[in-house]
Structure formats: structure tokens, C-alpha cells
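Dear Dr. L.,

I hope this message finds you well. Following up on our conversation about the binding site, I have prepared a predicted three-dimensional model of the protein together with zinc ion. For your records, I am including the exact sequence and ligand specification that went into the calculation, followed by the C-alpha cells. Please feel free to forward this to your student if that is useful.
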Amino acid sequence: MDPAVEAWLPTLDEARSALEGTVVGEGIFRKGVDLGAIKPSEVYPLAAVLLVGRALVRERWTQELDLSRHAMEAMEREAPAPQDYTEQTFRCLRRVVLGPSRCTNCPARPGLGPCTQCAGTGYRSAETPCSACQGGFALCAVCDGTAVSLKVSVEYLRDVVAPLGRVFLPRLPGALKSALARDFDPGLRLPDALLLSLERPRLESAYRGPSRVRAPDFHGHAFEGAFESSLEAQEAFREAPGVRLSETRAWAWPLLWLRYNARGAWWDVAAYRDRQGTLRTTLAEGVG
Ligand SMILES: [Zn+2]
Ligand SMILES: [Zn+2]
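The resulting structure of the complex is given below.
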């Protein structure tokens, strides 16, 4: 096995020494049990999946605009296909709704519309006249002073980056799973040694008998549903409406599930490594 992988697999010995001092089942009239001092009844090597990624989503909406013929002719007809994860906005001419007509933005003085700097008041403040216009009138912003405008339908396209960060836990008892969901941070980045190829398992043809699909595992750590769930989430992310580019990475997050029977109750422990490689344990009272 790759030593870098081996270094990340939690071992039973480490889990047991990490549990030293973890006392359970303590009551008013009875002493508790130190989990580090007893052996677990059951040990299961499992693995969660950390899935992170990003997608470039192209949002679209249309709007009608009044503008000059010159502005219409200068407008793009097609937006370029997204090349990278740059967030930007484009607008494209879709169709002419109403042909050349008398501009409605400058009815009083054809070609001169309300000044956009001072909202047509002619003043910046009570005493300061606006320097961009004369008495509130400036070159009409809609028709560029031609007094003729067109109404067109414009499509706006906005490229936005959507992030993905999720942890998929294997099948575990409810209380332990809830506790782990708080401890497994989807914002983490795990080492490359734990990178996982999230692909549908191929059919393996057996020497005899029907073909079968081998359940994916990570060096003996079973995913118990986490692989399938993350695979589905990855597909849903890549195929979401408007997604034009996407990239995802997945890591296996190995853990040991230990079951202890102490003082007539069951205790579930998960042992795993954090980002620094330090062994951590999460404890939850189990159901027999
Ligand atoms: Zn002005
Ligand atoms: Zn005008």
C-alpha cells in the first residue's frame, strides 16, 4: 500500500489510546468505564466521501430596451461560450419589437432628453448648476440625439460561479452520524493520497456465474452508500440547469466505527484523521 495512504488510515491501536480517559456510563452510585481500557465488541473500517467542486452557471433573462439604431447595430448577436470561471455579464440583441419611431425619451426638445447626471433638474446641489447639461437637458441617452429610437428585445447572460462542498457519510447509527456530520467539515481539503475517482463501478465478469458489480471500497474501508450518494450528487451538480463548465474532486475520508458494550449500554465511536493528520474520535450513545 502507498505509505501516504497508509499514514491516513486510522488504526485500532491509535483509536484505543485516543479514547483513554473517555469515561462512559458513570452514575451517582456507580463508576464509569474508561473506553480506552476495554476492547470494542465490533470494529468496522468505513470511509466517507468529501466532494468539492465549482460550476460556471449561465443565467439568462430578457428585457425590452429603447435605443438608437446605432446602438442596436453595435450590439452583439451571440455571447461567447464560457472558457473559464470568470464571472461576467453579456447582452445580446434578440429581435426588434418596434421599428424606428419618434423617441419617447425626448418629446419636449427632440434629441435632447433629461440629463442623466442631475436627473433633469439642472442642478447638482441647491447652488451648483449641473455642468453636464443646459437647464436639465442633455443629448438624449436613448436615441443619441437622433430623436428616433427602436424598441428591441435584449437577452442578458450572466456567468456566475457556484461552489460545491459536501460530505457523504457511510451508513452509521443515527446518533453517531449526526455527531459526525458536525465534525466532518466540507470546507476541508484532504491530501492527494486520498483522492478518489468517482465513477460508476464497472461490471466485473466472474470466472463462473453472472457478472457482478463490486462494491467500491478504499483500501478495505467500505463506503456503505457514501460512494453512490456522492456519485449521484456529482452528476446532479454537473447537469444542473444552466451549467456550462464544471469540475469536481472527491476524497475518501477513512474512519473506523467501533462499538463498545459497557455498563449494559452500547457506545458508538468513530475514529478518523483531521486535516493535520491527527487522530480524532467522536462518541455517541448507541442503540443495542
Ligand atoms: Zn445635468
Ligand atoms: Zn431621444
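In brief: The helical segments are 3-6, 12-18, 69-74, 174-183, 226-238.

With kind regards,
A. P.
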